[in-house]
Write a structure and sequence with these properties.
Length: 289
């Protein structure tokens, strides 16, 4: 039997996954000791069950990671026959290699700890670099939320829509989103004009008078989206929206986006925010089934 265990960073997503799987949802008791340490109680034994622990490792990453380790260990320790770690937003995934001598490869460390804590397999969504999951020391699947974002956009009835990757790295994402809602796709490309001057513009398509959706995997400080929005305003886009899987939105990033003329932020529930209008629960359901 499958049982979904709700991490405190993913209460809504956990409930949605349990509903889709038509299985039990366990909400563990979580408390903070006066010195900041966590206390966690599952409140039941999990003998022979397949425990699906759902915990985003959004800010505060370290605390959410520690809770994830406690959840996985408690699930395994109380008899679960299989423990799946669903980490919809994967903290530390951006440091996936040693770029400079002596650097800690944080993704590798986090994955090792997830495995040692009791996970038999991992499910991630739009992890920073898709290929990194192939090197995980345990079975791991990475799903993309881009088709789900595209399906949401289809309902908005945009005029002459364009899915625009925030940079070349997001071209494929923009293609998936665009294909899903019948829009053309392109990406923003940087051209070096002089040794000190760079101009950024869409690679091939005209944006003038169009409803443009800028597509990225993450909006963190919002800097990339704000820059893109400025360019699109200048080029005469009719409206600008920002679509991403992970709305990290550091500090007042969402206000910066609004001030830059971005009409709407469309994000998923890998990080639960007021902008989570798309749920990745169908992907988690597919992974567990
Ligand atoms: C970069 O590799 C990512 O795809 C995003 O473009 C980046 O993380 C966005 O960061 P920020 O919102 O801080 O510009």
């Amino acid at each position: 039997m499958v049982i979904v265990i709700a991490g405190s960073a993913s209460p809504k997503l956990s409930a949605r996954v349990a509903r889709r799987l038509e299985c039990r949802l366990l909400k563990p008791e979580l408390q903070h000791f006066p010195d900041g340490e966590l206390y966690l109680k599952l409140g039941t034994e999990l003998k022979g069950e397949h425990a699906v622990v759902v915990q985003s490792t959004r800010f505060p990453q370290d605390l959410n990671l520690m809770e994830l380790f406690l959840l996985l260990d408690a699930a395994k320790d109380t008899g679960a026959s299989r423990v799946t770690a669903v980490v919809p937003y994967f903290a530390y995934a951006r440091q996936d290699k040693r770029f400079k001598p002596g650097e800690a490869v944080s993704l590798k460390t986090v994955v090792k700890l997830i495995q040692r804590a009791g996970a038999d397999d991992i499910v991630a969504v739009d992890i920073h670099e898709e290929e990194t999951v192939r090197d995980f020391p345990l079975p791991a699947k990475n799903f993309t939320a881009m088709p789900l974002l595209g399906r949401y956009l289809k309902k908005l009835g945009l005029r002459s829509p364009l899915a625009l990757g925030a940079d070349q790295g997001s071209e494929e994402r923009a293609k998936i989103v665009g294909d899903e809602f019948g829009a053309e796709h392109d990406y923003l490309e940087k051209h070096r004009l002089t040794p000190t001057k760079v101009a950024t513009k869409p690679k091939k398509l005209d944006v003038s008078g169009r409803d443009v959706v800028i597509v990225d995997d993450i909006i963190s400080t919002g800097g990339s989206m704000v820059e893109a929005a400025k360019i699109l305003q200048h080029l005469g886009a009719r409206s600008i929206r920002a679509a991403c899987t992970h709305a990290v939105l550091v500090g007042n990033a969402h206000e910066k986006l609004k001030a830059a003329g971005i009409k709407e932020i469309i994000a998923t529930d890998t990080i639960e925010t007021p902008f989570s209008v798309v749920s990745v629960s169908p992907l988690i359901e597919e992974a567990v089934r």
